[in-house]
């Protein structure tokens, strides 16, 4: 599967500038397209013409697909989602309080923001910016999620997965800021958490996923991707609704069903999921499975779904 062009969702103040400049140096200016809005001098002429002047995103995306190896911009996932396989979508996330403070400093310094830091936190347009940028796709389907606080390590993992040689750069920092992390009062942290619950959930998830992907790649194991899908309240504890796949293979994932750690059944994640098809996840959307618990499963027993190739426990539930 061809990974290129890559679609880099540049979330503000997550080390994205360092990454996009390093990517441009690696891929070359002619193969790098930027979309930072109609008023930005960095936005590529093809995008200015087709996206902003003619308002024909299809033709803009056609130019990108035909000419670029890397697209970057302060855009959200849905903008170019129809034109990219999720494996080709990459981003970085940052600890939410640090991202918000850095964004506040940037906005005050360069965009004339006059409010206080607490004012900034309370504005909905600045809340949950990281999760908003990725809205519309299953998080585990995204090709690569780097961690700002583990930037060098992230670049190493990125290069390993995409077979690239992007260098570690460190640019666009606030030079007036003392070294180290921003510090916060208890009131500030409380307010940040209240306004950004989705970003905190995303960051916690991204840290776990980063370590999992690093471990799988280091062992030469398939990088499996998976997640739970919506389930009616009445069905919770009685069945699992899930998706899973590996971008590097055409075969459906197979898994064992464990009941109290004993193998009792097996399944294949090969059923159609409309959202998977719409977002070009993999296998034309045939990546799902509903597993209804047999009548022999008793209340309180633990159900696990273990992927066969990696022996990874993808899902865990308690029978109710």
TrEMBL record:
Q: Which InterPro entries match?
A: P-loop_NTPase
Protein name as annotated: Sulfotransferase family protein
């Amino acid at each position: 599967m061809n990974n290129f062009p890559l679609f880099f969702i540049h979330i503000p103040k997550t080390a994205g500038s360092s990454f996009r400049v390093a990517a441009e140096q690696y891929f070359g200016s002619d193969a790098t397209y930027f979309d930072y809005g109609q008023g930005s001098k960095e936005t590529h002429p093809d995008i200015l013409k087709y996206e902003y002047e003619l308002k024909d995103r299809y033709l803009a995306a056609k130019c990108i697909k035909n000419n670029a190896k890397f697209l970057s911009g302060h855009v959200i996932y849905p903008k170019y989602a129809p034109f990219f396989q999720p494996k080709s979508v990459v981003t970085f996330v940052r600890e939410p309080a640090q991202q918000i403070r850095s964004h506040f400093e940037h906005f005050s310094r360069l965009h004339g923001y006059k409010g206080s830091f607490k004012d900034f936190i309370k504005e909905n347009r600045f809340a949950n910016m990281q999760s908003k940028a990725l809205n519309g796709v299953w998080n585990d389907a995204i090709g690569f999620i780097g961690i700002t606080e583990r930037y060098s390590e992230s670049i190493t993992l990125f290069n390993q997965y995409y077979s690239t040689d992007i260098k570690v750069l460190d640019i666009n920092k606030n030079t007036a800021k003392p070294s180290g992390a921003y510090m916060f009062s208890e009131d500030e942290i409380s307010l940040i958490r209240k306004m950004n619950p989705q970003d905190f959930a995303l960051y916690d998830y991204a840290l776990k996923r980063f370590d999992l992907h690093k471990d799988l790649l280091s062992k030469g194991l398939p990088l499996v991707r998976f997640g739970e899908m919506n389930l009616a309240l009445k069905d919770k504890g009685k069945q699992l609704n899930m998706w899973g796949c590996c971008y590097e293979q055409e075969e459906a994932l197979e898994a064992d069903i464990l009941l109290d750690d004993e193998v009792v059944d097996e399944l294949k994640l090969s059923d159609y999921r409309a959202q998977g098809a719409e977002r070009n996840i993999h296998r034309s959307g045939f990546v799902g499975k509903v597993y209804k618990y047999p009548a022999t499963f008793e209340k309180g027993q633990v159900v696990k779904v273990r992927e066969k190739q990696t022996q990874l426990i993808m899902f865990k539930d308690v029978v109710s």
